[in-house]
Amino acid sequence: MRILIIDDSPLVWRRVFDMLHDMSFISLLFYARTLAEARYCLAGCVPDLVILDTALPDGNGLDLLRHPHIARPETRVALFTNSTDLKGKGLALEADWFFDKSLDYSQLLNLIKDRAYWLKPGPE
């Protein structure tokens, strides 16, 4: 499973990284702090899951929902933000889930484990 964390808060991405870095089902875990860094990361890899904050230094993370590597059906997006007022807009733009980053770390972790289960290769 390839996961891209897009969040400008070192505390957030470090906490998410610490939750995930030793899980065997993750083949690639990378992060971006800005829209520009996210676009650069997306040029080199198509993630299975994007954990996306909306408030970034160079713009709104929701703008990335139209990026070709995020807009494809196989890539799922979890909005992970303190901007709870953007929940409706994010879901309308086809984000798959919304999590409040002040409360929902364990729910995010459960989602990632669930997605990994569904992405694992089946028996040959």
From TrEMBL:
Q: Which of UniProt's keywords are assigned here?
A: Phosphoprotein
Biological process terms in GO annotation: phosphorelay signal transduction system
SUPFAM superfamilies per the UniProt record, alphabetical: CheY-like
Q: Which PROSITE patterns match?
A: RESPONSE_REGULATORY (PS50110)
- On this chain, the residues bearing 4-aspartylphosphate are D53
Response regulatory domain: which residues? Answer: 2-116
In terms of Pfam families, this protein maps to: Response_reg
Q: Which domain of life is it from?
A: Bacteria
Q: What is this protein called?
A: Two-component system response regulator LytT
Record the organism. Thiobaca trueperi
